[in-house]
Amino acid sequence: MFRKIKYKVFFFTLGLLIITVCVSSYYSVREMNQHILKEVTKRAEVLGNNVAISGGHHLLAGDVIGLDNLVYKIKNSNDDVEYAAIIDMDNKIVAHSDLLKHGATLSSSAKKSMNGPSGTGSLRRTGSSRGSILEVTTPIVSMDKELGFAVIGINRSSLSTAQAKAHITALLVLVCLLLLGTCGSFFMSSYLTRPIMELTSGVKELERGELSAPLSVYSRDELGNLTRGFNEMMTMITSQRNQLTDYAHSLEESYIATVRVLAASIDARDEYTHGHSNRVSHLSSLIGREKGLSNKELEDLEVACLFHDIGKIKIPDSILRKEAGLSDNEIRIMNRHVEYGIEILSKAQSLHRFIPGVKHHHEWYNGDGYPDGLAGEQIPLFASIISIADAYDAMTTDRPYRKALSRTVALKRINQSSGTQFAPSLVSLFVRVIEKRALLSRSRHEDVLVT
Ligand SMILES: [Fe+2]
What is the CATH number of domain 5-174? Predict the structure, then answer.
């Protein structure tokens, strides 16, 4: 998956988005928390100031009941106020919304923690059995004289509820942003990488020679210019490839024509083998077609047949055209035409594919042939086909020492050598195709006579 640029772009942009959204959400939530805390504190300070102003008069007047009423009213009229208290300068609680705490004295540490700048509220967080408390202490001052402190305890649960709501809102926004970002990243990566992916597949198709139409240009940016450049290059390559194909065809045709001339000139050295290579080529094509070879294979088989005895060009006339039987030494020299054929074909790389057919066309199915004594399926198919066609043509043409055999006799001898000299499966194909052609030829002849 990560080998595709589309997914790389997608996961990269998504990763950046997640990091950005998470960091910004973290700082947003922190700012919201601080804002909420600030607002709650401000409200507590306002309450503390109110208590301090009213409490100052009551303290000066020694009105304890008034102080009790004041703290009680503050506690009851504000749901989030956990307690309210008035403390004198001797750290003694003179009024408290919890009547049980009346008259108690604060410890020095508690007193110290509530001392803030004169005339302002100070903040402290305390833990209690009823939960975390946000405590605001405001000095009670009258005519520049400190009389005590007003203390307001705000239950932080209300603060936590507000913060929890803010967190949920932030989380929902985060999830929505991530979903939108994921979709956006996917579409953006698809949009950005589409031309690149089409270019990649275009290059592969061009390599295989399958690209026929220019690629679509989606934009006028660098990618669009790249696609336009690729299309121009493709047009040029296709044109040059077509030219090369034409040259190759023309070269192939010239080459085959040359081979035909060469084969004919070899056959012409001996009046008895005149046209032999062409006939072997024709007979081999019949076998190959019956066997179901492709057109390309049939073309190669035809050329291999034309080449099959090309090595005879190096055999002296005294042996090649000798009418009497050959001596053992002369047979050895004659058999070397296979070796000479390989030498000739080895000179050009493009002819190497014909070597197996030429080299082994005198191998026998049972391994008694030459040059390598191959047997059965070891013998290349082309060589096995040429072997049958070569033998049949030799039997059905005149020789200095005998007249040409009839088709029936020749086929009988081919059949007799099935499994020894020739491959049985190819012999049956060959016999079938020759008899079929004979029947066809006979019926045409009868038609001509009737008409
Ligand atoms: Fe031969």
Answer: 3.30.450.20
